[in-house]
Design goal:
Largest sheet: 5 strands, mixed
Distance between the termini: 73 Å
Shape: globular
CATH architecture of the largest domain: 3-Layer(aba) Sandwich
CATH topology of the largest domain: Beta-carbonic Anhydrase, Chain A
Structural class: alpha/beta
CATH superfamily of the largest domain: Carbonic anhydrase
Number of domains: 2
Order of helices and strands: HHHEHEHEHHHHHEE
Strand order of the largest sheet: 2-1-3-4-5
Strand content: 5-15%
Amino acid sequence: MCDHSLTRRSVLTGMAVGVGALLLPRLFYASDAAHATAPGVTPEVALQWLKEGNARFLAGKSEHPNLTPARLADTAAHGQHPFVTIISCSDSRVPVEHIFDRGIGDLFVVRVAGNVADTDEIGSTEYGAGHLVTPLILVLGHTQCGAVTAVVKGDKVEGSIPKLVDNIIPAAQRSKDKGLTGDALILDAIHENVYQSIHDLSSHSEELSHLIHEGKVKVVGAVYHIDNGTVEWLKA
């Protein structure tokens, strides 16, 4: 009798764990949605916060907000509520939270070499905009980008890198079609690559396209200058 009871409890426990695992993604989404960006944070406000943060960074007056033990405890207990989703290059010279002077729970950052927008990056951005309800999406390129430079120069790359940088090819070609050469060509391709990622986000994601069309999310582009810390905001 005792053995049967133990067996039955084990089975029931296993079923509970299994059901819990199935429900985990939904519970995770619900928790994030409940603590999404506070009402009133518009795309314009979010963009202004980024610009103000970069201004403090440039002036050497960074405030390093939201880096306290209290902030750690609050975000652990109540979830994250970032005000912007950012696709940035993985380059170590582009420390996103620092250049915008923001802290824990402020920025939902997707980092990838060449700040490309392929399947994984688009899915991550959908999560940021759709589930965390960030009102702003920023695609952030940077000067002296190795990925863009390699594509422009036609350098040989191996492993999985060709599949990573193939998103940059259209941008590089548009810059070449302008008749540019040398550093001017590479800098223009860096700009074009930001626009390419913005295009890929909207054209390959029905969810993001809908959010943009409904005016719930704004997408902007910028280029970070690694030599002086300036963020150059691109025209729409």
